[in-house]
Amino acid sequence: MTSGSRKVAVVGVALSDCGRVDDATPYALHAQAARRALADAGLGREVVDGFASAGLGTLAPVEVAEYLGLRPTWVDSTSVGGATWEVMAAHAADAIAAGHAKAVLLVYGSTARADIKAGRRTGNLSFGSRGPLQFEVPYGHTLIAKYAMAARRHMVEHGTTIEQLAQVAVQTRANAALNPEAMFRDPITVDDVLSGPMIADPFTKLHCCIRSDGGAAVLLVAEELVRDCRTAPVWVLGSGEHVSHSAMSEWPDFTTGPAAVSGRLAFERAGVRPGEIDFAEIYDAFTYMTLVTLEDLGFCAKGEGGAFVEKGRLLVRGGELPVNTDGGGLSAQHPGMRGLFLLVEAVRQLRGEGADRQVWGPGGPGELPRLGVASATGGWFCSSGTLVLGRD
Prior knowledge:
With about 400 residues, the chain is α/β, with parallel strands linked by helices.
């Protein structure tokens, strides 16, 4: 449970237009997602007294809040890469529980794909070369190379195969096929993944996330506001966050990510076990992130992730633990810092709004899932935020 006296629920979630969006600014996508999330909850923007945003503008939360016409009395601009939103949601839940806010809106929007197509930016992502990065940047050690190196280490230590990693992409695409909003829905095979162009050994193209445009918004409120909402509440049961390293030389074990800590904390605070979870939404910029996070969260033992994923367990249809039910960053959408999309999909699943991709509870078709987990990773396994969510 949250640390304060009030329970906290997610009552509004939404996506902006996603995929290929050539005629909108990032600010417009923020606004579109925010309006839709408030409409989803059945609340007006006047109820919002807390706001969290990162990744846009010189003063991220200030500029975006102004654009949305908000004047919050609680703000957060924590930026830890893809895990930003799970960490922000944890901070928002604590603030609401403590009485510092009653309704906190989290919003993100990006035109990463459109900007490249229009020549407004290049495809290169540089974090500069100051501080600890100065010891890696001169050698061309890119973000994707860091993930690839970690994946190779797991293969060496635990016998994980490239075919097992490819299964993550294949099963995620199968889930995306059930989602009409997913950017890529055509089935793929292990051979398709292995025969693609090499990006960073051992990752070929389909081991890597897609690039899209899009935005998302999530509204968290205090329990006394739930009765005013049009949606069923999804409760924040427990959360955890962890920062691991910046320089790769300071990462003690390439086969264990920060979710090993954030996940343990989230499960302990929620009072549940991994075996009780009905589905998981996991940050998947690369196939290895899914595999190692499944281990870190305790869904299988360390080193057994390859065997776990190769048996079709991640599938919405027939899988023991459906993962990335919307198609994830590998197939549905990935406009950067995708952690907020995990929360949107988790809430939709718990409310029974998954349509053809709806996950069922232990009782089978017709029984809604009771517990879900959203776990995001930031940087190059530098940070993690994990939330356990549940319904009444």
